[in-house]
Amino acid sequence: MLAHQLCSDLDQSANDHALDLEDSVVLVAGLVPWSIAGAVPLASMGAPVAASMALAIYLYAVSAW
């Protein structure tokens, strides 16, 4: 919500705005393994936390790309 309010003044299409929000807000929440966005999917799948933290490199790669 806050990111949308901060970025709403930028001159860009709705599709570009949605992609920017997804690349910043949605993916960043999963980078913290103890947050709800990281812990709930890992617990529901029974995934090992150490391996999941190692595979979080793909989340960093999206934001770096």
Structural class: mainly alpha
> End-to-end span in angstroms?
24 Å
Shape: elongated
Order of helices and strands: HHHHH
Helical element count? 5
Calculate the mean pLDDT score and round it.
76
User: Cα-atom Rg, whole angstroms?
Assistant: 14 Å
Total beta strands: 0
Our estimate of the beta-strand percent is under 5%
- Main beta-sheet annotation: none
Amount of helix: over 70%
Low-confidence stretches: none
Structural write-up:
With 65 residues, the protein is an all-alpha fold. It is built from five helices and no strands. Helix 2 (14-30) runs antiparallel to helix 5. The longest helix is centred in the middle third of the chain and has 17 residues, at 14-30. The chain is elongated, with a radius of gyration of 14 Å. The two termini are 24 Å apart.
Layout of SSEs?
Elements: H1 2-7, H2 14-30, H3 36-45, H4 49-55, H5 57-64
Helix pairs in contact: 2-5
Features:
65 residues; mainly alpha; 5 helices; elongated
